[in-house]
Amino acid sequence: MTPVSLPNANEFFNSLLKVLEGAVAIGRQADTLGVHEARTRLETVQSRASSAASVADSAIFAKVKSWLERKKQTEPL
Q1: Helix residue ranges per DSSP H, 2-76
Q2: Is the distance from CB of 12 to CB of 4 less than 8 angstroms?
Q3: What is the pLDDT of residues 19-29, one digit of tens each?
Q4: pTM tops 0.70, yes or no
Q5: How far are the Cα atoms of 9, 51, 61, 75 from residue 69, in angstroms, in the given order?
Q6: Alpha-carbon distance 31 to 22, whole Å?
Q7: Phi, psi of 41 (to 5 degrees)
């Protein structure tokens, strides 16, 4: 790997700095979501769900839980 000369390093840094400045500018334009609006959106999505989702109800969770319980019983004290 060849070392970067100082003028090229400055150009590289300046180009990255411009990219970062652009990203920050985009971030400043982003609309912040108020607590009330976030709660309203969450309630809307939850009301459209066919049923309440629960990790404990999934078959995968039950399988992993049984493995962990079995391992816990076989470990020496």
Answers
A1: 6-29, 35-48, 59-74
A2: yes
A3: 999 998 888 77
A4: no
A5: 57, 28, 12, 10
A6: 17
A7: -65, -40
